[in-house]
Amino acid sequence: MPAILEQVICHHCGEICQESGVDFDGKDFCCVGCKTVYEILSDKDLCTYYDLNQHAGVSLKSKNFEGKFEYLGIEEIVNELLDFKSQNFHKLNLYLPDVHCSSCVWLLENLQKVKKGVISSKLNFTKKELELAYRPSETSLKEIVELLATLGYEPLISLNNTANKNAPKKSNRLIKQIAVVGFCAGNIMLLSFPEYFNLDLDNAVDSQYQAFFLYLNVLLALPVYFYGAWDYLKGAYISIKELIAKNTDILSVDIPISLGISALFFRSLYESFFNHGGAYWDSLAGLVFFLLIGKWTQTKTFEFLSFERNYKSYFPLAVQIISKKSTTYRTVESLKKDEVMLIHNEELIPADSVLMEGKAYIDYSFVTGESEPIRINEGELVYAGGRQKGDNISLRIQKEVSQSYLTQLWNNAALKKNQVKQDTKLSAAFTKYFTYITLAIAISTGVYWQFNDPSLVWPALTAVLMVACPCALTLSMPFTMGTVMNIFGRNNFYVKNPLVIQQMSEIDQLIFDKTGTLTKNSSSEINFIGEALSHEEITLLKSITKLSLHPISKIIFANLTTSKTLETDYFFEHKGAGLEAIIAGKEIKLGNADFLNIPNAQRTQEASVYLKIGKELKGYFVIKPSYRAGLDSVLQQINGSYQTQLLSGDNSKDRKHLEAFFKAQNLHFGLKPQEKLDFIADLQNQNQNIMMLGDGLNDAGALGQSDVGIAISENTQAFTPASDAILDAEKFSLLPKFLLFSKKSVNIVKLSFLLSLVYNFVCIGWAVTGQLSPVYAAIFMPLSSISVVLFAILLTHISAKKLKLI
User: Fold this and answer.
1) Superfamily of domain 483-520+628-743
2) What are the record keywords, sorted (predicted)?
């Protein structure tokens, strides 16, 4: 490429200022937008914004908000967005994807100093959500959103914003269970101290108090059993019912847990009311408390991420409808056939339509995977799911939203079905054999004592069921996997639930999408092959590419560091061929080999765009996708342990480059979304466990069909299809470590099983004798649970440190 000229950096955003830049207040700005933001902050004495982080702002060169937020002036739409509304007070949450540093936090939390009428603004940096309160009598939501967009923090408002308002609130029942059981467990242990020390209370008054405490423990144990342990009891009942009906041959882990809890409860009732002696109430309460804590750890995932998305997550909330009489805004769901809508730059097209007016460059990469936007002429069909790149366009709707191509993709059976994953081989096998063996030992113990000492039948049988509770599976698994999820989260890899980690350890094949997964969405590599261009020739090239909306022209324009451009005497863009213009009396052409009539001898297979000035061929540009950093290393490590394949909706122009990473027969190009899904389903029918990595809507079906679907995202909170996990694109190089760590974590769980089996072997051997007292049960049962948990967490952290994940 031509050499970089002297650079002037924008005071606001840090980008290179071109000759069209602006000088204001002794500072340089790349565009009027950045200068406007500086003026606003300077006028309000808020330039501390720049002191916190140099060049903290977002570039506003190509931002055009004119008319984009007019729909926020419609009361019905605003009411759908508000969390709270009164005559003098409105409150809502806005998602701001461009928040990136401490300066952003400082400015957004001082928004009331910038805009009159704003009462308060509080930013959740992790969620990138702004909690906003304002007075409707002094300002409007439209004015606030336009101000945020002007400052560089344009809110992402989609149809899903209103859908979420009607979503059922998440239950906090588990927290209540933990609180109730924790309260009961603490008091039961406190009231059981006389039993722990085996105090012989001959005094009548003390004996009465001891009896009172014993019956008080009974009352405290009732909510532990009937409220705290209810989900396990219900789960066991359902599992047994399914087993009897032969709908499944898998035993739920709730069965042995419920047997142990019920044995503790009813044995303790017997001890309390018939023997008037020590019972197992503290063991019961402690066990249920630990189980609930483990369950909470298992279900507590990264709440600020959305793993389940439908088309509402991507559609704009409303679009502008154009009619002969007036221009109005309508919600997307209310759009009708034959209405004409106005689509702005970067907006997603919500319904299949015909282009009526404007220059349309439609980016279908989010739907098909094809990375190059397509030029659409007036009268041609534009499919829903495409994204407009360029000026505003008007479209006549051909199908309602519910019947569009995009919606049909989401209504695919693979996406609609409830993806209930089968339990993993490890937990299913352990539960099955553990339950049968425990029941066999308990029954054998009862039969033995029936013939030898009938008085010990029920004490021994219930003691076996009590101490044989599978604490390794119910405690080690959630605590280990919870720790792994936390470590993954520190490395910007967010898994939906602990089961995903177990499934990762069982993967046989990894399948990759190309565009946006192996390649970066935000950049491309460009090289100019030919003689060095003079400053005058660079200016001519800059001038012709400036006038084109074609994405390749934009890439070339952005990589030309000269800022000077000239007016054109003539310009014409040939669809799918190239550009031609006359500038300063010189003819310049830019396009493919056929358009420039390049002789075969001068053509090259790697060429993308040829440049001719006058009659002289100057050279050609080679534009290649920019692959993710560390791709070579990642695929080399993975290929040693897994079979890898590529499924891409893009064309095969990069086949030669990708053959360095994949076997030739494992490269598949030009696939439609349904073909990707079917490909994975065929592999699964061959008993292969599949992990799919993709980024766009075209991958949604394949991600849902896979045993593990991972969405690669440049922004972990925006535009990711439904998936089992979300991986920050910057951490792509850590993928082999994540896979290895998932296997190590499962091995740690297995070791925890062994430790638990040792405890069970010792305690069951004691229990079958019928001599296991409540005091010793109260000591050994919590001790085994705590030691198993600590063992699992410690080994998990050691393993993570060895892999340098913490």
Assistant:
1) HAD superfamily/HAD-like (3.40.50.1000)
2) Cell membrane, Ion transport, Magnesium, Membrane, Metal-binding, Phosphoprotein, Translocase, Transmembrane, Transmembrane helix, Transport
Beta strand 568-574 with 578-583 is antiparallel
pLDDT value, residue 612: 92
CA geometry: angle at 412 spanning 406 and 414, to 5°? 135
Residue 322's CB is within 10 A of a number of other CB atoms, namely 16
- Taking only the tens place, the pLDDT of each residue in 305-340 is 445 555 555 667 778 888 877 778 777 778 888 899
pLDDT, averaged across the chain: 79
The pLDDT of residue 203: 53
Q: Are strands 393-397 and 353-357 parallel, antiparallel or unpaired?
A: antiparallel
Residue corresponding to tokens 């934009």: 554
The pLDDT value given to residue 775: 56
How far apart are alpha carbons 362 and 388 in whole angstroms? 5
Using CB atoms within 10 A of its CB, is residue 487 exposed (0-12), middle (13-18) or buried (19+)?
buried
Q: Where in the chain is the domain with CATH 2.70.150.10?
A: 313-411
Residue type, 151: L
Within the chain, which residue ranges are assigned CATH 3.30.70.100? Answer: 22-165
CATH 3.30.70.100 fits 22-165, yes or no: yes
Name the range with the highest mean pLDDT among 466-475, 504-513, 726-735: 504-513
Q: Which CATH architecture has domain 313-411?
A: Distorted Sandwich (2.70)
From the number of C-beta atoms within 10 Å of its C-beta (0-12, 13-18, 19+), residue 449 rates as: buried
| pLDDT (0 to 100) of residue 419 | 44
Phi and psi, residue 503, nearest 5°: -70, -30
Question: Which of the pair, 793 or 211, is modelled with greater confidence?
Answer: 793
**CATH ID of 521-627, from 3.30.1540.20, 3.40.47.10, 3.40.1110.10, 3.40.50.1110:** 3.40.1110.10
What value does the mean pLDDT take over residues 225-234?
90
